[in-house]
Amino acid sequence: MDSPQAVVHKGAEILVAEDSPTQAEKLKYLLSELGYVVTIAANGKQALAAARKRKPAILITDVVMPEMSGFDLCKAIKSEPDLRNIPVILVTSLASAQDVIKGLECGADNFIRKPYDEKYLFSRIDYLLTNRVLRKTEKVQIGVEVYFDGQRHFITSERQQILDLLISTYEGAVQINEELEAKQEKLKHSEQELRIQTKILRSILESMGDGVIVRDENGRLLFSNAAAEKLLGVGPAVGKPAERSERYELFKADQVTPYPPNEMPMARAMCGEAVDAEEVCVHDPNGKEPTWLSATARPLRNENGALQGGVVVFHDVTNRRRAEEAILKAKEEAERATRFKDQFLSTMSHELRTPLNAVLGFSDLLADERYGPLNERQQRYVQNIHNGGRHLLRLISDILDLSKIQAGRLELSFENVRLDQALGEVVSAMQPLADKKSQALSQLAAPGLTVRADVTRLKQILMNLVGNAVKFTPEQGRIELIARRNDEKVRVEVRDTGPGIPPEEQKRIFEAFYRLRQGAGATEGTGLGLAITQRLVELHGEQLGLDSQPGEGSCFYFTLPVASEVREETVRQSQVTSVTTELSRILVIEGNSIARQLIQSQLTSSGYETLLCDQPENGPKIAAELQPDAITLDPLTDPAHAWRLLVRLKNDPRTATIPVIAVTSGDQPAIGALLGADEYLLKPVEKEAMLAGVRRCLAIRSAAPPERPILVVEDDRRTLEFIGESLKAQGYAVTLAADGAQARSHVASSLPEMVILDLLLPKVSGLELLREWRANPRTADLPIFILTSKNLSPEEEKYLRAHAEYLLDKQEPWQEALVNQLQRVLLRPQRVSN
Quick one: pLDDT at residue 583? Predict the structure, then answer.
């Protein structure tokens, strides 16, 4: 709302001389709101011209302006008779007394100090407008000569004008004084607050467990708390960084190398570098254990970014370092214990498997009627010995499996697996056990239902679960293997109608070596089957679950991810093409038409009758029906499927004796030999190599045993005797050696047909003998089989595969592979000479 005075003066014109557009517009807005007519001039010259033209009631002018200052503009206004009565208000900062003298000299009527108060400005305008009539009537000029600051000033302003100017100056001075007093009070309060905050900050820093040190750019100590002295062991040091490093006894992580002065955290911070968690070792001057500090340092800068010093904060990490060292030591101890465990398991495996092989082997020999008939009781005793050995062998295998799983060394080989086939094979294998208890064992899985899994380990899981179900389910019970799809998973279940598992037992049965009790009866099993099964399921990324209630049976279940269906070969009778010749018949099982035709052309051109099978899954059936003299098989088309075909051929009594030649581009002779392959030819196969392999296989059935003996070198007496008896049963002549020295003597005196060599021998190791014989031209080509339980290093295995004919591991089933490979090697042309 307008003031009464403002209402009286509404319409009065005010001229504003201001070079700042912002300030000019602000003044114009404020004065216009009070009803004044406002004209703006951007500089002194424009303002003088506007004053001559418009004769304003008041002129408000800034002092500092381009072209003509406010003082000059006022002087020009007061010098012209038509304008001299216009009141002039100077807007200035009143930075010095000279401004007052200049204002008196130029005849200014009033001062407004920057920054101005709006109400004060309005009151000055109102005052000047109210008293302008008095000014017109009272024109008494005085002439005063003033000496100020060494200069003479002559003032001719009117008395009222001088009085108004001095009053406004005094008011401005009073206002400035009030502002200064307010600022002094505020500064005093701020200083008090700063002292309080500084005191609080120092109290906080002193109470901290972390040490804090602050220095200026010259290294002068500005602050150091009690924790710093306690952690460093001495008070804050002065002087150069080198002297401080020596005083504090700071060392690097090796605890021997003194900390270089220019690398100390504070020195680096004072050079502008930020240091984070730098660990420093502080030696105790009293000879106690050193202290480990973690230091963080930052440079101190002013508002312009210039370096003004540095601050370092450090805390004690000795306990953490000791804990880390203890953890590292515990880790090393655990790793050493693991190595000892692995070594123990390896030794145990060797020491137990070696006599077990003899137990199983000799029990088989005793059961062989060629060594004399046994009565019923003797047969039962032999069978008990054999069964006990098998049970112990399974226990050892379970322990080794569990050890590999726990050590993370058991790797899975994933593939797409048809569940109906896998379940069918498990049911077929477990059916004899179920038949002994008159149990119904069945499977239910949709045809073609396929999962992603390791087929061997999947079967191991199912065999363990079914074996448990058979063991605990009473006679006339029922066991089911069920697989059903649920979205992107397949749930596999093994259900039984057994007694069920009590709730308190359901968690413990998955613990290693825990055995479920059967009422008052004896506790059966090793307690490892479910522990291994659970871990194998977990290796597939899934969980093994159990639903069971006492008296209602049990259901073990797990899920596997759905995979794309394994395509079945077209169900039709395999095309069997024969080319009749005068020589033997060879069955070629090959899914690739080009490879099939190539093998056919190589064989038929040499006069063999060739039978072609273009559907590998029908190969065993055709072989059983047509009884070829030899079979060629390519495992690489589908390795897992082809190896299963090989197993089927060797397990079927109708085809077990038919030699099989594996023709492939995959270098896996060990797997082929272990599964019963008689020859292993690597693609591309030259015609002569193919024919030589066929001739060796055909010669197996009719060839006479070699004239020279086979030398068996083995330090375990029972294993030595078992191998010797097994080879003699095959019609071979055998020489036995119980240590490396005897073997060396035998070979030196009479060259054997071949050598079966253990590596762990007394007197002279098997590896030494192999190197010695390969270096001698007389024995460089002597066929040597390595049969050992030694844990081989990668270098040893590489050397053995390069210089031995064949490598067999005693920890794996090796007897059948040994006989098969002996036949293959002994029927090839010999190159050694006496």
Answer: 61
Q: Is the pLDDT of residue 241 over 80?
A: no
The letter for the amino acid at 335 is: E
Distance CA 350, CA 344 (A): 10
668-673-679-683 Cα dihedral, nearest 10 degrees: -10
pLDDT at 514: 76
Residue among 51, 26, 36, 202 nearest 114 (CA): 26
Sequence-distant (≥ 6) Cβ neighbours of residue 518 within 8 angstroms: 472, 499, 524
Peptide bond just before 66 cis, omega within 30 deg: no
Write out pLDDT tens, residues 102-125. 877 888 888 787 777 788 788 888
Q: Which residues pair with 250 in a beta bridge?
A: 282
Contact between residue 122 and residue 12 where contact means Cβ atoms under 8 Å apart: no
Question: Where are any strands of DSSP class E within 50-198?
Answer: 58-62, 88-92, 110-113, 144-148, 151-155
pLDDT in tens, 655-678: 887 888 887 655 455 555 555 677
Q: What is the pLDDT of residues 696-715, one digit of tens each?
A: 777 665 555 566 889 999 98
192 token code pair: 């008090």
Identify the bridge partners of residue 152 per DSSP, sorted by sequence position.
147
DSSP one-letter string for 734-763: EEEESSHHHHHHHHHHS--SEEEE-SS-SS
Cβ–Cβ under 8 Å, residues 779 and 800:
no
Q: What does the radius of gyration of the chain's CA atoms come to, in whole angstroms? A: 54
In this structure, the number of other CB atoms found within 10 A of the CB of residue 521 comes to: 7
Q: Where are the alpha helices (DSSP H) in 17-113?
A: 21-33, 44-54, 70-79, 97-106
How far apart are the C-alpha atoms of 170 and 172, rounded to whole Å?
5
Closest CA to 86 of 50, 59, 124: 59
C-beta of residue 417 within 8 angstroms of C-beta of residue 453: yes
Helical (H) or strand (E) element with 471 = helix 455-472
